[in-house]
Batch of 2 targets.
Target 1
Amino acid sequence: MTKPRFRTLAAALALVAAGGATLAIAASPADTIAARQANFKKMGGAMKVIKDGLAGGADKTKMAGAAKTIAAMARAQGPLFPKGTGPGAGVKTDALPAIWAQRVTFDGHAKKLIAEADKLVGVAGSGNTAAVAAQFKAVGGVCGACHKQFRADD
Ligand code: HEC
């Protein structure tokens, strides 16, 4: 009798674990923080690709790909700032407590980044360097505005 019951329990736990893998909110604070930092790093790398492209060469394909990376990473960040992943989590993070005290403002920056990154996707492969430069500046402005308010060491 105990054996089948154990098996059921194991199956239930496996289901919970599988759910946790898809839901970032159910992951440990350390995993969540590492995931969002990795996404931000990819965004930073993609911004550099566009900056370098604008400085010379302007490889349209590369710049279009980088813009898509920024837009995708911006969307991925949404669930990666759950409560309990601030400086008190015991994991190194530059996320300031203000994120959770001023959630609406923080989410506003995050939404704006998605909108501006989408516009960058729209122009990045156009070959219109002036338009790419202007939109690159708009995206960079959103990065900077959020960092100033919500990221330490900035
Ligand atoms: C909605 C606010 C917000 C926006 C918009 C934003 N960031 Fe950040 N960024 C943060 C926060 C908060 C951290 C600190 C994350 C942590 O340490 O947990 C961070 C960290 C980073 C890091 C350091 C990651 C690491 O290795 O620890 C880089 C690089 C970065 N952001 C680049 C960017 C770029 C590039 C953009 C724009 C394309 C951007 N960010 C837009 C809030 C934002």
Target 2
Amino acid sequence: MPNFKYSLTQLILTALLAATPSGLDSIVELLHQIDDPAFQADLLKGMREGLAGQKNVPPPKGWPELAKKLIQSPSEKVQEEATNLGLIFGDQTAINRLKHLLKSKSANIYVRKKSLKILTERKAPKLVPILYQILQEELLRAEALMSLAAFDHPETPEKILKLYPELSQKEKTIAVATLASRKLYARALTEALAKGTVRREEIDVLAARQIKALNDPQTIVALNEHWGTLQPSTGDKEKRMSVYKKFLTTKYLAKADMVNGRRLYNRSCSACHKLYGIGGDIGPDITGSDRRNLDYILENVLDPSGAVSKDFQLNTILLKDGRLVSGMVSAENKSSLTVRSTAETLVVSKQDIKKHTVLPISMMPPGLFEALEKNEVRDLVAYLATEQQVELPEDAN
Ligand code: HEC
């Protein structure tokens, strides 16, 4: 029963806040009068959700006194929610508390990650030097790499690329995504590609598409030269399909290396699709699909934008600070957009958007097969047709 009451409270609050910003004052007044920590936390959470994506909201009447009281609450949940709201109202004390938590190696790793996430969303000043330090800590490295995309800082590409050879596969993917987020970062990335610090296969089709969307001629020239062009072969789909069908004979498929197929799947598809329970959820789970049917695979992979539904359209959002975010918009309210990419789910404040483009194409990139060698297409297609998971050898990650 309480759950029902609380979620209803939140619904009402969210609606109230959307309708009247001054509704905040009355909620604060109400909070002054109640002592039940669960109810307090719920009201605070409702306020926060109603204000999601907004920044520098003037604190409501009575907030500073209330915050002082709540930050000392015996309930950690209440402390946390009071800090979160303090951030929305621009309380410096709240920011400092989180920076302190983030830096302290003795703090719980979950708390540190959460602090990092909030500080990044708030774009806390002077966070970047702390992020550079944290890059040295394996436990927080992936998060720090992701966070760096939020800040326009000239030293970032150098810091990332210096560490790059030591990164794990997963960290490399994040590093590349971050370097693909801004014009100057992408220049550094393509230079590293030319030098061989970053290898061609470490830049996936999505990152390449994002680099292209940055629209910087210098970077595009370098990308075309060292990575390849993104243009899938044009022309009639039937014709393109027949090219693949011709060489993907039963006999040729029988020679497939399934382990390699799984590796290729991990690299090209699993960021978005689940297969045998593993993978992302940007696109549909394909375990139960018609994936053993070659026509079905070719149709979807060679022409992903053939019949794209609105939910899966690719959005590119250029922020005022030069960051390019691309992905699907999974939610929208008056003040913010929630954008899902393979790397993360970001709440983008509408005030920060310079240009928002909804492209008439799918999140699923074209050219996935064109980026592979013939034998690689064979291995991947054969793997897609398996009845059960193929085990990877011990050493593979
Ligand atoms: C960046 C994300 C992304 C990647 C990478 C990706 N896909 Fe997709 N895929 C999607 C989305 C989103 C859809 C939903 C269809 C649409 O666009 O309307 C989809 C649809 C499909 C479908 C049709 C599924 C259905 O139920 O309709 C198949 C099959 C498929 N993808 C296979 C693949 C294969 C094979 C790869 C790798 C070679 C791949 N995809 C890589 C995002 C992705």
